[in-house]
């Protein structure tokens, strides 16, 4: 299939979906941009426990951090070496940027997942109105599609709305689970750093 055939196919899909297709396509783009960004940020699963990673980066401070937890850990270790007062408060402020970063676009994904089926439902209503109008005038085919066009639009937009929402819901669930795990790891890093400083004082 060449480029012109792809363009023709996309045009036919837009016509089949009616006026709700542009916002649905926008939802698709926003959804996968948000999902892709969050996967990229949280892409590196930890290969060792937080405690083992903590010991590793204390001994190898020059090693590049491969995950967001490791980046935060290196920054926390450097902060502890400066012997700042109220370390926990400084760690909370420092780690906040990492916590905010892993939560970025989660609201966008959730909103897209919620409104996509509603847009599909709107397309269904518009398609059924077209169908009933055509039935009233006994028009099988018209400029707007007639009975066949109305039914096709009603079914197609529902399918498109669910096609956006279902994968988005699954991906968002996986990403939120990963986010919660990273947040727990960051909290554990703070606890380890504060505990180690307390031991050094006593």
Automatic annotation (TrEMBL):
GO biological process, one term: protein import
Primary location: membrane
Boundaries of every MotA/TolQ/ExbB proton channel domain copy: 64-186
Pfam families for the chain: MotA_ExbB
Single GO cellular component term: plasma membrane
Residue stretches spanning the membrane: 20-41, 108-129, 149-170
Protein name, entry field: Biopolymer transport protein ExbB
Native organism: Nitrosomonas communis
């Amino acid at each position: 299939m060449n480029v012109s055939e792809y363009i023709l196919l996309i045009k036919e899909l837009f016509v089949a979906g009616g006026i709700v297709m542009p916002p649905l396509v926008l939802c698709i783009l926003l959804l996968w941009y948000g999902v892709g960004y969050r996967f990229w940020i949280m892409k590196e699963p930890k290969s060792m426990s937080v405690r083992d990673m903590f010991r590793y980066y204390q001994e190898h401070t020059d090693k590049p951090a491969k995950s967001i937890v490791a980046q935060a850990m290196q920054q926390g270790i450097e902060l502890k070496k400066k012997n700042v007062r109220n370390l926990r408060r400084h760690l909370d402020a420092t780690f906040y940027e990492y916590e905010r970063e892993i939560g970025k676009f989660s609201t966008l994904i959730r909103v897209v997942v919620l409104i996509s089926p509603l847009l599909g439902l709107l397309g269904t209503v518009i398609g059924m109105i077209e169908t009933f109008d055509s039935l009233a005038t006994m028009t099988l085919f018209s400029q707007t599609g007639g009975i066949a066009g109305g039914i096709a639009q009603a079914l197609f937009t529902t399918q498109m709305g669910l096609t956006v929402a279902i994968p988005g819901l699954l991906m968002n669930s996986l990403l939120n689970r990963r986010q919660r795990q990273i947040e727990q790891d960051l909290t554990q890093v703070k606890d380890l750093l504060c505990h180690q400083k307390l031991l050094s004082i006593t």
